[in-house]
Every structure is written in structure tokens, then in C-alpha cells.
Amino acid sequence: MAVVNFEIYKVLGTLSENKDGWKKQLTCTSWGRYNPKFDLRSWDSEYNGMTKGITLSLEEIIALRDLLNEVDLEEAMEESLKERAEAKAAEKAAEQDSEKE
User: Fold this and answer.
1) Considering the entire predicted model, what is its pTM?
2) Measured distance CA(86)–CA(52) in Å, rounded
């Protein structure tokens, strides 16, 4: 397996921590010889192990911040859950109709 060279310059915040101590964090991290970017992923307590994540430039994270400030997140989630429930109900009804035939 290839060695991944990185350096975390600043931990900006922790979003969550699981029972095993892995923390989902926003950091300023440099990958390889490149300049630091904003990075969102989970890390073990020693910053040796990591999950897949997302790396964003300054412009991208500003665009994300602006988008998050514009969107009603609770409403978006509620609408998505409602649509999912309706789709599952329609799927179940279609399965029952096909069983009757």
C-alpha cells in the first residue's frame, strides 16, 4: 500500500465522534507537496488512520458556506424523508398489485 504524505496544520472543528474515538473533523491539511486545503474526514485519535473524505479549496468552501446559509436544512431533510416514505409506499403497493395478478 502506498504511503500517503500529509500534514494537518489546523483543526478547525469536530463535527462528531464515534464510540471508537474516531472524529469527523474539518482541518487545514496539506497532501503531498501541495498547499493546504480544507479537508473533511474522520481521523483516529493519533491522526494515523483516516477515512475517505473531501478536500475543498478556499473558493469551494466559501461557496459551500454560502449555500448552507441559504438552505433550510431541516425543511430539506423533512421533504426528503416524506418523498422517500411515499416512494416506498408506492413500491409496496405495486408489489402487492403484482402478487394479486
Assistant:
1) 0.80
2) 32
User: pLDDT tens digits for the chain (101 residues)?
Assistant: 677 799 999 999 999 999 999 999 999 999 999 999 999 999 999 999 999 999 999 999 999 999 999 999 999 999 999 999 999 999 999 888 887 76
Give the separation between CA 36 and CA 55, rounded to whole angstroms. Answer: 10
For residues 24 and 73, what is the distance between their CA atoms, to the nearest angstrom?
A: 20
59: Cβ–Cβ under 8 A, 6 or more apart, which residues?
A: none
Q: How far is CA 24 from CA 20, 53, 85, in A?
A: 12, 9, 29
How far apart CA 45 and CA 19 sit, in angstroms, is 12
Q: Are 42 and 53 in contact (CB under 8 A)?
A: yes
